[in-house]
Amino acid sequence: MSEPASPRLAPCPICGKLPIQKFRPFCSKRCADVDLNRWLSGVYAVPVKEEEDEDGIPPGGKADDDPR
Fold first, then answer.
1. Residue 57 near residue 63, CB atoms below 8 Å
2. DSSP letter at 59?
3. Has this prediction a pTM greater than 0.85?
4. For residues 30 and 12, what is the distance between their CA atoms, to the nearest angstrom?
5. Is the CB of residue 52 less than 8 Å from the CB of residue 62?
6. C-alpha–C-alpha distance, residues 44 and 48, integer Å
7. Contact status, residue 26 vs residue 9, Cβ threshold 8 Å
8. CA 28, CA 39: separation in Å to the nearest integer?
9. What's residue 6's pLDDT?
């Protein structure tokens, strides 16, 4: 019988090297810190499409009953 295949490890998302268990999914503390800095400085962001606020008014728009 053959042994089950070991799962392939994805490369480090910062530099592409093989990850080390202690820092997974990164290869080093440096790459983990680079990623953390990117999150904290706003480089990574979740895209948002603003449709309406809680009152049902489109962003930048005015309500139908607003006399302005």
1. yes
2. T
3. no
4. 11
5. no
6. 13
7. no
8. 17
9. 56
pLDDT at residue number 49: 78
CA distance 57 to 44: 28
Instruction: Measure Cα distances from 5 to 8, 10, 11, 24, 59 in Å.
Output: 9, 15, 18, 20, 52
**CB 15 within 8 Å of CB 23:** no
Distance CA 46, CA 25 (A): 20
CA distance 41 to 7: 33
For residue 28 the two structure tokens come to 């080093």
- pLDDT tens string, the chain, 68 residues long: the values are 555 555 678 999 999 999 999 999 999 999 999 999 999 999 988 888 777 666 766 666 665 555 55
Residue 14 identity (one-letter amino acid): I
